[in-house]
Amino acid sequence: MNHKGTVVIETEKLILRPFIDEDAQAAFNNWESDERVTEFLRWPTYHDVEDTKRIIHEWVQQYADPTYYQWAIVLKSLNEPIGSISVVDQDEKTDKVHIGYCIGSRWWHMGITSEALIKNGRLWRETYGSFNYLACNNGSSQCITYRTWNLCLEKVETHVVLVGADS
């Protein structure tokens, strides 16, 4: 893989970009304090913006590592992050990239995660080098939308592996 770190990606409706410390309040308001979102994730609902500030600052510090991938999902019409998409695991021996994502529940069922995943998958194929498997999850097999994965499989032209919460 040809690692280049978290680069800015743009789609019709979205900008996927590195987080900045100033994103903390929007992240807290839009998904990290949303119990509907965190029900399907491996971390608890945040009840204090200070927790969000801490985690985003940790992410920002890791951007110096070219193998670190953590994007803010920014809705252009809102001009603030509504979620995140990241590489939670990668295996260069098997050319597997495992993508995790979450967005605020107000933006569910609007095609946003499909758009972000498809563009992110294409980025991996075109910029970072080919990969054999794109493993994806949003934290829970109960909430996976198979339509999203089928679209991703078709548009990215790779094997998509669905990963549930217990994987």
Describe the structure.
With 167 residues, this protein is of the alpha/beta class. It has a single domain, classed as Gcn5-related N-acetyltransferase (GNAT) (Aminopeptidase, 3-Layer(aba) Sandwich). The chain contains five helices and seven strands; from the N terminus they run E-E-H-H-H-E-E-E-H-E-H-E. It has helices at 24-32, 35-38, 49-62, 112-126, 146-156; strands at residues 9-10, 14-18, 70-75, 80-91, 96-103, 133-137, 159-162. A seven-stranded mixed beta sheet has the order 1-2-3-4-5-6-7, with helices on both faces. A hairpin with a 4-residue loop joins strand 4 and strand 5. Helix 4 (112-126) packs parallel to helix 5 (146-156). It is globular, with a radius of gyration of 15 Å. The two termini are 24 Å apart. Residues 138-146 and 156-167 have low confidence and may be disordered.
C-alpha end-to-end distance: 24 Å
* Global shape: globular
Low-pLDDT sequence parts: 138-146, 156-167
How are strands sequenced across the largest beta sheet? 1-2-3-4-5-6-7
At CATH level 3, the topology is: Aminopeptidase
The helix content is: 25-40%
Mind telling me the CATH superfamily name? Gcn5-related N-acetyltransferase (GNAT)
Q: What's the total number of strands?
A: 7
How is the biggest beta sheet arranged? Answer: 7 strands, mixed
Q: Just name the CATH architecture.
A: 3-Layer(aba) Sandwich
Number of domains: 1
Structural class: alpha/beta
**What is the CATH C level class, in words?**
Alpha Beta
Strand content: 25-35%
Give the H and E element order.
EEHHHEEEHEHE
For the residues shown, what is the average pLDDT?
Answer: 79
**Count of DSSP H/I helices:** 5
CA-based gyration radius: 15 Å
